[in-house]
Amino acid sequence: MRILDKRSKLSRRQLLQAGAATFVTVKVAASGVVIGDSWAAAPASLKPETFATLVQMSRDIYPHDRFGDPLYAKAVDGLDAAAESDAELLKLLEDGVVALDGAAQSAHGKAYNNVGWEIDRVKLLRDIQEDAFFQKVRGHLVSGLYNQKEVWALLGYEGESASKGGYIERGFADIDWLPERVQ
Amino acid sequence: MAAPFELNDSNVVVVIGSGAGGGTLGTELALKGIDTVILEAGGRHEIEEFENDEWGMFSEISWLDKRTTSGNWRVAKDFSGLPAWIVKAVGGSTIHWAGASLRFQDREFKVATDYGELPGANLLDWPITLAEMEPFYARAEDKMGVTRTNDIPGLPGNNNFQIMKAGADKVGYSKCHTGRMAINSKDRDGRGSCQQIGFCFQGCKSGAKWSTLYAEIPEGEETGKLEVRPNSQVLKIEHDKTGKVTAVLYADNDGKVQRQKARLVCIAGNSIESPRLLLNSASSMFPDGLANSSGQVGRNYMRHTTGSVYGVFDKPVNMYRGTTMAGIIQDEAGHDPSRGFAGGYELETLSLGVPFMAAFLDPGAWGREFSSAMDMYDHMAGMWIVGEDMPQEKNAITLHATEKDKYGMPIPNVHYDDHANDVAMRNHAFKQGAAVYDAVGATRTFPTPPYPSTHNLGTNRMSAKPKDGVVNKHGQAHDIRNLFISDGSQFTTGAAENPTLTIVALAIRQADFIKDQMSKGAL
């Protein structure tokens, strides 16, 4: 069966370089894993700290361990761009992050991005999941995250096919593990 | 006279909408020598403009004018501003349909008689029978090139279908095949064969799938008797003091209101716009809306029980490769009350790309439960439930009390409550669909709730008696003899089958009737 290579096309060096080019600080843990919770971009409308919190929040809403932070940051870029011409949206996001950090302070004595365990951050999100702020971010991510070609490649979806002749000769029926071949 | 026609030409038949109903009807009338103008609200996008891009095409050709929703259906909660996913473009929803072309079953034309008392269900027998429909179904299947008819071979089974077939065999289903699809399995009728592109819902780039855009309308236009005016959104239908319709008001490409005179008006705007237009055409003579002496205009809205089942397997499936819906299990389509509900359902293969899967797999869901499912995207198989939902009078298209569109016309509200029968049927279908995938070793299955409705039916229904419906057995309004309904809003009941073949068959039949009546001087 024709299977896709779903490994990220970016090397770790490229991921780090991308980070250095667009984000203020990048933390690298002892294990060598790039951690996104202190990333801050040079956004068009959001405060850098707000942007960074939204990146972490985005990963916590739709966690994919094989997705690098740039994919979540790109999703938040979309919200940042929309907020440039929408004062109500900008306020919703800024106030939302302030409130989220407040809740994190009350529960753990730290800002949201510094709450170390995912399970604790997710609990804070669950507390606000009916709120307009959470719904706005989550709703945006549905396309903001999942409509990226790099994400498709990581999930094994090939996207556009007509220019390649469709799948008639590229494995539309090549499943090879069923008990019997069927017509 | 030859196209293009003058606004003052009162001899033309005006068809509103260019989809399965309007596009077929307009072409058939033109082929019979009748001057016809199709007014299409959307733009004209030919095959070259189609793109294999889910959100891109969604934004380009979907009907996105504001609509509101109410009722206990999940669509009102998950997609409150998008009750229906249909097309606003020349070709209508035949641009993005999957191609499934099934005839109704004989008993499905007379379910009021068969199903007995179902409290809350406004059941009514159709004023026509399968025997009367058969010649028109045959003509439609030939016109559309439906596989497994007219010596057209069935399409080959893709990976998604092979999983369904393997599971169906194990579970004991015997009616599983690659469907009766209006998609060329070999070159036919000047169109090529299916390349298994996998973007059926985004417009068929090979032209293998039948659509009025490229398989009907050009043929009609070649006669010189058919004029298609895109970007022409009809606002109101006018009538004279005898109650005959006389003209149609529409907003043209520049937003300017134009009046096209008409000998006959045939409405095919799909089941939300068609009744909306009748209601918005209310006058002192027709205070409840045009052709609404029965009070049934807008009522009995049906959308099939729908819902989907997705199964995750430990090995890759790549279901996105190839046709989105060439696969069906028909074993549950009969009427078997021992299952706990009336009516039946079909199970049909379905695939979505990553972008749409994220939106529709489990609307509103988040966290690892959801993302772990998306991580298994290429190990997923999917199927869609098409079941007979119950017509209820309260499920209706009504005019919004305050909100208006950019032309100042009240927008529609779509109200739908699930009937207990619908819920029982859907739950049974979820269970059976999961059983099919479990039989092939699925490690996880999902019952996915209904999407914004792609099958919209019943809101100007056919009836034998004027008090029970809006149109007669020819789709002709009971109250106004030169007014017709030509889309799926004619459906008296929804049956368990995808509606397009029946809409096309009814349009062919209606064209015959109109020609006959015209030559007798009755229209």
Q: What can you see in these coordinates?
A:
The complex is a heterodimer of chains A (183) and B (523). With 183 residues, chain A is mostly helical. Chain A has seven helices and two strands. Chain A has a two-stranded antiparallel ribbon with strand order 1-2. In chain A, a hairpin with a 5-residue loop joins strand 1 (27-28) and strand 2 (34-35). In chain A, helix 3 (69-83) packs across helix 6 (132-144). The radius of gyration of chain A is 19 Å and the shape is elongated. Chain A starts with 11 loop residues before the first helix and ends in a 28-residue tail after the last helix. Chain B is α/β, with parallel strands linked by helices. Chain B contains 13 helices and 17 strands. Chain B has helices at 22-31, 54-61, 74-78, 111-115, 130-144, 159-171, 212-215, 217-222, 270-280, 354-360, 368-375, 420-438, 500-519, and strands spanning 13-16, 36-39, 68-70, 176-177, 226-229, 233-239, 245-251, 257-261, 264-267, 308-312, 328-329, 345-349, 380-387, 396-404, 410-415, 444-448, 483-485. In chain B, the strands form four sheets. A six-stranded antiparallel sheet of chain B has the order 4-11-12-13-10-16, with helices on one face. A five-stranded parallel sheet of chain B has the order 5-2-1-9-17. In chain B, strands 3-15-14 form a three-stranded mixed sheet, with helices on one face. In chain B, strand 6 (233-239) and strand 7 form a beta hairpin. In chain B, helix 1 (22-31) runs parallel beside helix 13 (500-519), helix 5 crosses helix 13 (500-519) and helix 6 (159-171) crosses helix 12 (420-438). The radius of gyration of chain B is 22 Å and the shape is globular. The A-B interface holds A 1-4, 6, 60-64, 66, 122, 129, 138, 142-143, 145-147, 151-152, 155-162, 165-168, 170-175, 177-180, 182-183 and B 51-53, 55, 156-159, 162-163, 165-166, 169, 194-199, 205-206, 315-318, 320-322, 353-355, 357-359, 364, 366-368, 370-371, 374-375, 377-378, 440.
